[in-house]
Amino acid sequence: MSYAEIIVDISHENVDRPFTYRIPEELQPLITLGSKVEIPFGKGNRIITGYVVGFAEQTNYEESRIKDIISLCDKSVSPEEKLIGIASFIREKYGATMITALKTVLPVKKATKAQEHKSVVAIKEEGELKQAALIAKSKSQRAKARLLFALCENPRIDYALVTGKLNVSAQTVLSLRKQGMLEIETQRKYRNPIGFRELTPQKLQLSKKQQLIVDEIEKDYREGTPGNYLIHGITGSGKTEVYMELIAKRLEQGQQAIFLIPEISLTYQNVVRFYRRFGDKVSIMHSRLSAGERFDQFERARKGEVSIMIGPRSALFTPFSNTGIIIIDEEHEGTYKSETMPKYHAREVAEEMAKRAGAALVLGSATPSLESYGKAQRGEYRLFTLKERLTGGSLANVNIVDLREELKAGNKSIFSRKLKELMEDRLEKGEQMMLFLNRRGYSGFVSCRDCGEVIKCPHCDVSLSEHNRGQRLVCHYCGYEQAAVKSCPSCGSNKVAGFKAGTQQIEEALHKQFPMAVVLRMDADTTKHKEDYETILSKFANREADILLGTQMIVKGHDFPGVTLMGILAADLSLSDNDFRSAERTFQLLTQAAGRAGRDKLPGEVVIQTYQPEHYAIVRAAEQNYEAFYEEELVYREFMLYPPAANMMAVQLSGANEQAVEQLGQRLASEVKEMRFDTNPAQIGPAKANLSKKNDLYRQVIYYKHKDYEELVRIKDRMEECIRLWDIKRENVQFDFNPMNTF
Ligand code: ADP
Ligand code: ZN
Ligand code: ZN
Predict the structure, then answer these.
(1) 0.70 cut: is pTM over it?
(2) pLDDT digits (tens, 9 = 90+) for 604-642
(3) Does ligand 1 lie within 6 Å of residue 241's CB atom?
(4) Which numbered atom of ligand 1 lies nearest the CA of 386?
(5) Which domain holds residue 684?
């Protein structure tokens, strides 16, 4: 091969195409698809890096104008051909430059220095060693003798032990090596983030329903047609057991498995089951691993030393040689969608990867996304349902409390009369409870009781939140912080106060109402450090507290057999999110929360406090009736042309100059008006974004809706072209297909 097609490491539309370079002869045997290379670029021949994405024998360019590749960056990780294919799929489907797409599928960019494990190994028989040892001793070569005697007992000793505990110098070791007594062995040691090994394999006898799922999927493999599957099963219905069995079957066939799980569910409790069953074939990836640890995990996967990768979104790009199955647990979770460019959805990318690899894609959830359940209804995914809990314990009894009635009855407290009564009962019996505040922010905003002015961040168009018991005001978007204000900046009134609804305030209310109760609080404030999250969970699991109070974090998949009461304090707070997915999110959260109580033998009670007791998301969650919720929600989406009834693309614009951002939005929108469509897309905007200013950048958004995804891709392509032609540099434009959150 004489020429290479190279994507340069500059993220700009202008250079977002492969450039042709000549491969010097000495590099020809070394360069492969995906190699990272150094190249001269541009008029000044600045040296930059790029990735090889293709080869050619000939080129249409004039020979004299083609430049040579300078060198191969040997520290780079060469992405496999497959991943380059996925990168271009991502680039095409979600919009981004090829280099950002490549960086997405290659989360590990640089090899870090590997830890090496050295040992001293005897290469002579025990008899000879002993003889040599005695000779050394007679010559007063004590260190030599010590090491030789030690090797008689143990023919392989850690090098660190030799120089440490045995106090033998490196020189002495070398001289014994010269003498032909021993060898020094160096093995590359891969850092394993989990430090235990000696676990007994555990395998349960699958129930009939579980076995059926495994058998059916296995049958498809045998027929050469593994496809896409959705397991709709309540928490505790045995999905994880099914996943493990499916993985075991693939491993038997010499294949590997990728298991995605939301980062928040990546707890010891969940992972230890995999270690028990599969030992150190398992590797884990999470965002807290250091770059080096992450590299090691990928390296082990590449070399075939591990066969199962567990992790969040990015684990999808594990460079296994023969992935046989991709499993996505809690597939409805919003975190599977990337929030940075390219804004890809792991479920969609996994589907494409599975298709290309001839692997199965297995999704699981107690509350499937509308997208996946819709596909199952249309037969694109095969649906399996698990309805019973395997550990016994019945579904909890759910009470809906109308907060308007509470107010009418003169109860102004955060706790309804029903909830208070049940809490007192639990405290008396020594049973545990959880209180869930359905709120994405953590604490209340501050406003003036006289004129209504809300204290806002000077850099973002959002209200500041109270922290440190009202002493500080913090912006959750940019981190801006200031001291609490004493008087209203607008009217001067001193009646400024926080709107009491955060977890901190509830904790205070709990201390007042139930002074004897031990309360643990879990929210973004109390889980700032690495271990906080696990610490709180294990304290609660050890029954060191009566009440666990928290945000969403507390409802995501933890088993606390002692919990017999779940209080949902303001169920409808997430309904007012101003977002087409808010009913779905509310339903999912409430269903999950309701599933937390009464997991064991003791009967559970759930109290849902709400101002909208008749809202279908709340009614259906209380009934734990997924199918009915799905039907009602789909009618709404179809009526409004929201995903999955149609496809939607958000064009997100931002920039420091408010007018320029507005103008760019209008210019782009009028370009689209010039395009021809069989059916015109619905257009909303350009308009101010929901969060109209963030970090001093003004934000505008345009929405396009169309039944046909490809038509939206055409709009995106046209816009990308315009941005290049118009040489837009100051404003930033991003695309978000079927967004999870409003911009
Ligand atoms: P899910 O993933 O749906 O929440 P799990 O697989 O974690 O469900 O199973 C819930 C509980 O039931 C676990 O404690 C698990 O050990 C147990 N379990 C699962 N399958 C079986 C089975 N076939 N026999 C007995 N216990 C089971
Ligand atoms: Zn005021
Ligand atoms: Zn801010």
Answers:
(1) yes
(2) 899 999 988 999 999 999 998 999 999 999 999 999 999
(3) yes
(4) 3
(5) 647-737
